[in-house]
Amino acid sequence: MDDAADPADEVIASAREAFKRGDNIFEYTVSAILESAYTGARYGRPFKAVQNMSLQNQICNQGWELVNGSVSKWDPSNSAYMVRFYLFRRCEANFEA
User: Fold this and answer.
1) Mean pLDDT in the chain?
2) Strand order of the sheet with strand 25-33?
3) Buried b / exposed e across 7-45, counting CB within 10 Å, b at 16+?
4) Which pLDDT value is given to residue 38?
């Protein structure tokens, strides 16, 4: 992938390929990074309060249905990032040709 490419395009392509291959499950993982150390220390909210869900919606449009989403426990002693896990199952009705 070149530096100018949008990483979301690669995820959508992977979801499409997995659906066409006949996979029953698709997993997507994303890390959230600190907006600023000061904000986190002062207000206790170092991560964006509202996450953009457009990528997850685009994955659903490739023939998937969100089954579960979870967030790894944030440890204040290691606040570089937290990880979100999304698990999708095949859903023929969601496929947009």
Assistant:
1) 79
2) 25-33, 81-90, 64-71
3) eeeebbeebbebbeeeeeebebebebebeeeeebeeeee
4) 47
Long-range Cβ pairs for the range 28-32 (8 Å, 24+): 28/55, 28/56, 28/59, 28/85, 28/86, 28/88, 29/83, 29/84, 29/85, 29/86, 30/55, 30/83, 30/84, 30/86, 31/81, 31/82, 31/83, 31/84, 32/81, 32/82, 32/83, 32/84
**Residue 6: band (very low, low, confident or very high) from pLDDT cuts 50, 70, 90:** confident
